[in-house]
Write a structure and sequence with these properties.
Layout (H helix, E strand, L loop, with lengths): L1 H5 L24 H14 L4 H9 L11 H34 L2 H37 L3
Helix pairs in contact: 4-5
């Protein structure tokens, strides 16, 4: 019984830090300064304002990341369009095989002639998409 009583009793709670932050400083900002400060804080992406302030005071590098939602939206739509374009190519191959398998040479050639006209229109559309993509990249995505 004496051995158990001599052990330190657990007081509960957190273990104290080795180097606690006990010094506190207070400063006041005008409305304009506060708006600028909050903008910088949001751009930094940090979650804790105290960490942001200490990083600014001690000149630690503060990273700001800007995400251009227009560019992200453009990339998403272009990716979807590309997948649809590939699906059309797969369907094109399947149609050609079915035409030669199910129809006579003369009838299959007539249908392929119509299909060829549509393919030429699709190629023109593809060229226009490539031009628009290059124009968008040149105007909006070039790093400055």
């Amino acid at each position: 019984m004496n051995g158990k009583e001599k052990k330190e009793q657990n007081k509960g709670g957190r273990k104290p830090k080795a180097n606690p932050s006990i010094h506190r400083y207070v400063f006041r900002l005008t409305d304009e300064e506060n708006a600028k400060f909050l903008t910088l804080f949001e751009q930094s992406g940090m979650k804790v304002m105290a960490h942001f302030i200490t990083a600014c005071i001690f000149q630690k590098p503060v990273k700001t990341v800007k995400i251009d939602m227009d560019a992200v939206d453009f990339h998403t739509r272009l990716t979807n369009f590309y997948s649809q374009f590939r699906a059309v190519g797969v369907n094109y191959n399947q149609i050609v095989k079915i035409l030669y398998r199910n129809f006579s040479e003369k009838k299959a050639s007539a249908y392929l002639f119509k299909l060829e006209k549509q393919t030429a229109e699709m190629a023109d559309l593809c060229r226009k998409v490539i031009e628009l993509t290059q124009e968008f990249e040149k105007e909006h995505l070039q790093k400055q």
